[in-house]
């Protein structure tokens, strides 16, 4: 359902202000979305004055610095810190991206950090991606072949066929694209969203897969697929530079021509 | 996970407008306006058929500032919708998904819609 306003329990309040104590000359104000499930209060935005003289170049470095020096209760997901795992996906300066590869020097003025949009917040910057993972499971992201386990024949793929997966296999499922999509915001329970559809296309397009027709049939649905109106927020936000809009367009084209 | 009372993270409130998303929502709004415009134009033609006397009040209205504003606005809504629809049709055949190209065609659509409006205005004024 389309609901433009936030529900009553999600309205954001003004939070605490953490003043700089290091007398640093180079200070950046960082506004971070906070919500603590144990308090029962509404979410708030805390402001931190961060000493940039002793801080790394990425937004993730700032978050880690805040957690180390200013407020150890700040909660966020992160793992590899090199744009490979997709854990630290969040909304930075109004656009979804990975905190670990976004440089804070790209952002003028205050730095605003929110969790991925239109998700149930678990704590602070962590959103609940259960629905997305269930949808991912529903497209059966594994090779399906008419082969009994005993045959064990190697599935060969020509270089040309392999190249067809370029731009799709690189997806790390960080959910930046899906949570940037207004269609996914309003119909997230039924519409599969850019991330999952890109994955669906990756398996449809795999020359080794034996279930192409069935896969196409499964995804050809008014709500699952055609809620994409080519808004292209997904492609604009993908931190890996992939193009989910093109993948969805390709599925639509396949369905129209097959 | 049981999280019925957990808050919803902000979406429209914080997400930065992209040229693509802005044009997309404009395309929708303008489409709805155009439906009403077409209905009004149908009635306008009916009044034309009814003869001079019936048509006279409409002519007066169209010559007021407000009337002219509406006509010019509709020129723009139609221009924009046509140009952006061409973009959508190209996407349907599978072209123009590249982010750079999509942004260029986006700006071209916006720019072109104003050019087309001016052209329509000048044609209406018998300028050519």
What do these coordinates show?
Chain A has helices at 59-70, 130-138, 159-163, 182-187, 194-204, 212-219, 233-237, 244-257, and strands spanning 13-18, 27-34, 44-51, 89-92, 95-98, 111-114, 121-123, 126-127. With 258 residues, chain A is α/β, with parallel strands linked by helices. Chain A folds into 2 domains: 8-127, Ubiquitin-like (UB roll), CATH 3.10.20; 130-257, Alpha-helical ferredoxin (Fumarate Reductase Iron-sulfur Protein, Chain B, domain 2, Orthogonal Bundle). In chain A, the strands form 2 sheets. In chain A, strands 1-3-2-6-4-5 form a 6-stranded mixed beta sheet, covered by helices on one side. In chain A, helix 5 runs antiparallel to helix 6 and helix 5 crosses helix 8. Chain A starts with 12 loop residues before the first strand and ends with a helix. The model of chain A has no long low-confidence stretch (mean pLDDT 94). Chain B has one domain (22-124): Up-down Bundle (3 helical TM bundles of succinate and fumarate reductases). The longest helix of chain B has 31 residues, at 19-49. At the A-B interface, helix 7 and helix 8 of A face helix 1 and helix 3 of B.
